[in-house]
Specification:
alpha/beta, 8-stranded mixed sheet, about 20% strand
């Protein structure tokens, strides 16, 4: 039988395919641009027939239809590997819950801990002549999901870019149970972070000055990494490499400016290695069938041992709060959930161990409390009670705000307190010093 004939035999409607899901099932929706659209709507229509259907996914780029059915929590339960704004709201609605993990472990969690998924449903690029469906920009861990799933349903989207790679970036039609052709919606965009603010530019200036030519980069999403990428694109840096869990618009700008060649990487030379991508149309068009870019499973790209082998590895991530001990919370403010650990722990440690490597935690020095209208310091005496520690004080490296940068590595508690307070917002420095004295981490010889 030809692949085309097998395709025709497995082709079905979203409503028919949705019947594969039963009450009590675990269903995997992948994440980012790979999350199904037509199948999500078809399952929402079946809500009255279903109870206790548990979904796994993450980094939602639109609110799923299953969230908006009447009394959604009695029918569906969303379990997220990484939270965003949509999921934060769903937590308060009783629909969503977070699944803590270190991102590099995710494929292994499916293969060794979860071991069984009832139904896997995700968007793919159209089948190629060899019978393969490409995962597009959301590969990350989907191959592992496929290996442990009893039923695999692919939703074909003509607009899905084909993301080339080394391995585990596609599924063969022989392993697929059902094929759905949806409405081919354009890939949803995750904004590039908006225009850079004065704070973003100040932080970017401080970070870019620490990056040597030949360095290998990992960036997160947001206006601050975007500003750093734009500044690098306009710099005279050369022969930069990319080894990042998330591929963002900033890398496209740097590539087009000729800053990225990957010539100094010890492996995957000349390739921009990433686990998933999310951004604007510009990014998806750049990735499509681009042999320079290498989509691989996150267990490969986020492996600490692998990252540490890359000299001059530069990791740039954000934070919610930092305390005077050097503990970083990037997931919550108290018990209010904001994000997830993602790969921050992987790259902080990988860069820390890299020869010439530098890990940067970047944030504004302060933030406006929306409830009280008062300015609050992001550098605190201690983290808010209930806050989750994402990067520990033992492996922290550089902290950067618009007021400066401080290398925590090898510093005692009093040195950390002095250094971190020196880059805090000036309005809060006296208060922080007073608290540091109470905590016995301030010396009489410290600078005020």
């Amino acid at each position: 039988m030809s692949y085309q004939e097998e395709y025709r035999q497995k082709l079905t409607s979203p409503d028919e395919a949705a019947k594969a899901v039963k009450s009590g099932d675990w269903v995997d929706f992948a994440w980012c641009a790979c999350m199904p659209v037509a199948m999500d709507k078809a399952l929402a229509k079946r809500a009255d027939e279903l109870t206790d259907v548990k979904f796994r996914g993450g980094i939602l780029m639109h609110r799923p239809a299953i969230f908006d059915v009447p009394d959604a929590a009695s029918h569906f339960c969303w379990n997220s590997w990484h939270m965003g704004g949509i999921e934060r709201k769903a937590i308060k609605e009783g629909i969503a819950f977070y699944s803590p993990m270190r991102y590099s472990e995710l494929p292994g969690l499916y293969r060794e801990q979860i071991r069984s998924v009832d139904v896997a449903i995700f968007q793919v690029a159209p089948m190629d002549q060899h019978g393969w469906f490409n995962f597009g920009p959301g590969g990350s861990h989907i191959k592992a999901v496929c290996e442990v799933s009893k039923t695999i349903i692919v939703e074909v989207n003509q607009n899905m870019p084909v993301c080339l790679g080394g391995f585990e970036n596609c599924v063969h039609i022989s392993d697929v149970d059902m094929i759905v052709e949806g409405d081919n919606p354009p890939l949803e965009e995750l904004g590039g972070g908006g225009a850079a603010s004065e704070v973003d530019l100040a932080v970017a200036n401080l970070v870019v000055s620490e990056i040597p030519s030949g360095a290998c980069l990992q960036l997160g999403i947001g206006s601050m990494p975007n500003a750093i990428g734009k500044m690098i694109a306009e710099s005279d840096l050369k022969d930069l490499g990319v080894h990042t869990e998330m591929y963002v618009d900033a890398f496209v700008d740097m590539s087009r400016a000729g800053r990225i060649t990957g010539a100094c990487k010890p492996f995957d030379r000349g390739r921009q290695t990433y686990a998933f991508a999310a951004g604007t149309k510009k990014l998806y068009e750049f990735l499509d069938n681009n042999p320079e870019c290498m989509a691989v499973p996150v267990s490969y790209v986020n492996d600490i041992a692998r990252v540490s082998q890359i000299d001059n590895f530069i990791s740039i991530n954000g934070a919610v709060d930092i305390d005077l001990y050097g503990q970083v919370s990037s997931e919550s403010s108290g018990i209010n959930h904001i994000s997830g650990a993602g790969g921050q722990q992987d790259f902080v440690m990988g860069a820390y161990l890299s020869r010439g490597g530098k890990s940067f935690i970047c944030c504004s020095s302060s933030v406006m409390d929306k409830k009280t209208g008062q300015l609050k310091s992001r550098i605190r005496p201690t983290l808010v009670e209930g806050s989750v520690v994402t990067a520990t004080r033992a492996n922290l490296h550089w902290i950067v705000t618009e007021y400066g940068k401080f290398n925590v590595k090898g510093k005692s508690t009093w040195e950390r307190a002095e250094g971190l307070i020196s880059i805090a917002h000036p309005q809060f420095r006296d208060e922080l010093i007073a608290e540091a004295e109470k905590m016995h981490i301030w010396r009489r010889s410290n600078k005020r």
